[in-house]
Structures are given as C-alpha cells and as structure tokens.
Amino acid sequence: MPNNKIEDILKSFNPEKGEVPFSLFIDNEIYELELATVFKKSWLFLGFENMIKYPGDYFTTTMGEVPVIVTRDQNNQVRVFLNFCIHKGMKLCRATQGNSQFFRCPYHGWTYSNDGKLVGVPYYEPAYVNNLDIEKQGLIAVPNVKLYKGTIWASLAEKPKPFDDFLGDMKLYLDLIFDMFEGNMEVYGGIHRWLLPVNWKIPLENFAGDAYHAPFTHASAVSIGLRGAYGNNVRILYPGEGHGIVSVPGGLARKAVDIDALTPFRDRLSKAVETLSQKYGEFVKNMFPFGPLNVFPNFSMHFTWNYIIFRVWHPRGPTLTELQGGILVFSDMPEETKRQILRRALHEFGPAGVLEQDDAEVWSKISENGVSIRKGSIDPKLIYTRGLGMDVEAEKVLGKGAKGRIGEYYSDVSLRGFYSTLKKYLTGEE
Ligand code: FES
Ligand SMILES: [Fe+2]
Predict the structure, then answer these.
(1) Strand pairing of 392-393 and 299-303?
(2) Any idea what the Cα angle at residue 249 is, between residues 268 and 242, rounded to 5°?
C-alpha cells in the first residue's frame, strides 16, 4: 500500500493531462515501487536468440535489479534462472557471457547443469546424504519465458498478462522489423554495458517519443554532416500499452555518411519496404525505416538508413541506469558492410558516440539539478502537454494498415501513454 509521501506524489501525477511530478525521476521510494510493480509484473526484453546460438551459450543480465542467467540448454531449450545459488545465495555466474554445460558456485562448489538441475554437491557423503534430496533441488527458474521472432522475453509475475496483449498494437511494428530479417538477424560486435547517472525513464523518453530535443541537443550533428537539417515534420506514434515510436518521414540519415559499404544494408531496407508493404499495408512506405522506438518499460531500438541499434535501460537506483546495447545486422551481409554499420552506430551511439555524449550530458545535469531542487522540498510538475488533444488515428496520416494514434510535430502523445501505463502499475491497476 503506497505511503503518504508516495500518495502525494501520485496525486500530482496526471499523465493524461500532461502533468508529471519531477519526483518520479529522483525519489527512492518511487524507484522501489517501480521495481516491485513495473519490473516485477511486466514482460521484460532480455536479449536476442542469436546471442545464445549454440547449446551451452549463456549471458547474464537483470530483470529490474534481479540478476538472471539466460542460457540454451543441451536440448536446445532457452531457459532463464535467477543468478543465485540456492545453498547460501552466492551470485552463481559472474561472467557476462560464455558457453558452459554447468554452472559451479565459487563459494562451496555446488554445481548445476544448464537445465537448472543440481548435479554436484562436494563432500556429499556422509554429512548430506540423509539430509539433502539432490534430485529435488535446482536453480530457481523465472516462471514465464517467451520467444518471439528471435527475441527473448520473460516476466517475474506469477501470472503475467498474455504476451500479445502486453505488446498490443506495438506487435505490428515489431513484426515489421523482425520479419524484415527473414531469419538472418545477428547481434554483431557484442554488447556494450555502461552506467549513466540518470533515472532509467529519462533516456528512454528520447526513443519513445522525445524527438523534440534533437534540433537543440544534437544541433552540432547537422554542422558536421551526420544529419540533414531537422524539420518540424516528425510524427510520434502511440500504439498503446505504454509503448512509443518516433516516425521520421523518409527515415533518418540517408544522405549523410554515404559510404559504399553501406549499400547492401540500404538495398535490403528498400527491398523490405516493398515486401512488407505488400504483406502489412501501404503505411509501411510512409514510415520505414521509422526511427527510434521503445517497448514498455525499458527496451529501445533506433532504426535508420545506416544502422539498427538496440538498448535496454536497466534501473540501478533512482538516478543511476546501466545501459546495455548493441547493433543488429543481416547475418548474410558482407563482413565489410557489418563492420561499417558497427562503426557508424558506435560513432553516433555508444560510450563514445557523438550523439550519446550530447544526450548523456543533458541527462546527468537533470539528475544533478533535480537532486538539489528536491533538497528544498520542491517538486515541480514537468510539462508533457505538447500536442494534447491533437492526435488522430495513425491510418489517417500513414495510410492503410497502420495502427495506433499519431501526434504530429513532436507531440508528447506516446510519452503521455508511457506515463499513464506506468501510473497504472504504480497504483496497482495493472
Ligand atoms: S553458496 Fe553456492 S555453494 Fe554455497
Ligand atoms: Fe538524443
């Protein structure tokens, strides 16, 4: 049951009217409530099947702050376990990725096979033989795992919403991206992980619907030729259920950075526009490749003529986020094309990316400033009213087959949707 302080914050949280209290981005109790609701009940993106291609492949990550191991067992089944030794709670696996048929705890050496069974207990006889039924013991499995078109998702809830209901109309837009790969989706160049001194929700806003910042935060990207001049024609698509898409007409960065090696990638995108518009509707031609997006709560992608990047915003504290990100390529493209895509992506987004640095500078100042302001017991309401009441059915703007609502001119429509969904989790409605 929310306490008084949380109740007060939630009272001034009216996302449908565009009112979001600043506390949401710095308050520790709100943060803890998010972990216990959003990250406990929602479906969470964990990674791509391509990251664990062979039996024994695994990677470690978190669901909220809960550490998990994602592995492909010897029978080819994808499994998700708490990264937790049931003997005395040691973190079982401390590597970020690898291949192993077994996980052996560094503390007392209990050993688990990668289907979760406890298979080895040192010095079992005579002290344990009558007191521990090995057969009945094993790793704690995450109760719900869903594989969807090459992606891996899980939920810690006992009975989560059906996965398709959770995605809602966002599924159409994710289908477009994942179908485009025709089974050739590859995570290339590994996963970068780094810490950002900011609340997890602020960075994802840029993907879910805050393209409004780009002409200012990324003004220098135009002068150095990474982007053409920013227009006022960016559309924000709200597919419902808290998800969000920024749709940039014509796609991003086609003219900039013209490198021959990118041609096979761009040709694939052009071809995909044709085949996918036949399958899903004319609207595909008006939005492909669409730009940034966010799947509620914390999985983002950015889709341009030069690359497709993905990132997961892992909460680590009210003003701390661990970013895990990488790029997707077509596995059957020439190696030089993959390398150039990786270079282009890292040049813009990544620990040293020029756009990433612009963003991170702003984000860290929001946290710093915000913490100081909250010390004065002041909780301003932030303003999310852009385009309020002006959004229309997506089909009217994008054409036949589109789903969701469109807000033009950098509307906050998807952010109001994100925060309305967040509020439902925080108040127990979801
Ligand atoms: S805590 Fe893992 S073997 Fe003891
Ligand atoms: Fe940005």
Answers:
(1) unpaired
(2) 95
User: What atom of ligand 1 comes closest to residue 85's alpha carbon?
Assistant: 2
Of 39, 99, 115, 85, nearest to 321 by C-alpha is: 39
For residue 36, the CA-to-ligand 1 centroid distance in Å is: 27
The reply to whether ligand 1 has any atom less than 6 angstroms from the CB of 139 is: no
409 torsion bin: left (phi>0), alpha (psi -120 to 50), beta (else): left
> How far apart are alpha carbons 170 and 404 in whole angstroms?
8
Cis omega (within 30 of 0) for bond into 297: yes
- The Cα 18–Cα 2 span in angstroms is 22
Q: Please name the residue ranges forming H helices in 281-412.
A: 335-348, 354-375, 394-398
Other CB atoms closer than 10 Å to residue 232's CB: what's the count? 8
List the chain pLDDT tens, one digit each, 430 residues.
Answer: 467 899 999 999 999 999 999 999 999 999 999 999 999 999 999 999 999 999 999 999 999 999 999 999 999 999 999 999 999 999 999 999 999 999 999 999 999 999 999 999 999 999 999 999 999 999 999 999 999 999 999 999 999 999 999 999 999 999 999 999 999 999 999 999 999 999 999 999 999 999 999 999 999 988 888 888 888 889 999 999 999 999 998 888 776 666 889 999 999 999 999 999 999 999 999 999 989 999 999 999 999 999 999 999 999 999 999 999 999 999 999 999 999 999 999 999 988 899 999 999 999 999 999 899 988 889 999 999 999 999 999 999 999 999 999 999 899 999 999 999 999 999 999 8
Distance CA 68, CA 52 (A): 14
Separation of alpha carbons 379 and 389, rounded Å: 26
Q: At what angle do helices 354-375 and 201-208 cross, to 10 degrees?
A: 130
d(CA 256, CA 292): 18
Beta bridge partners of 19: 14, 383
Q: Which atom of ligand 1 is nearest to the CA of 88?
A: 1
44, β-bridge pairs? 154
Backbone angles phi, psi at 48, to 5 degrees: -105, 145
Q: Report how far ligand 1's centroid is from the alpha carbon of 93 (Å).
A: 11
Residue 85 beta carbon below 6 angstroms from any ligand 1 atom: yes
Decide whether any atom of ligand 1 lies within 6 Å of the 106 Cβ: no
Ligand 1 atom 3: residue of nearest CA? 108
Q: Which atom of ligand 1 is nearest to the CA of 90?
A: 1
State the helix-helix crossing angle for 413-426 and 28-36, rounded to 10 degrees. Answer: 80
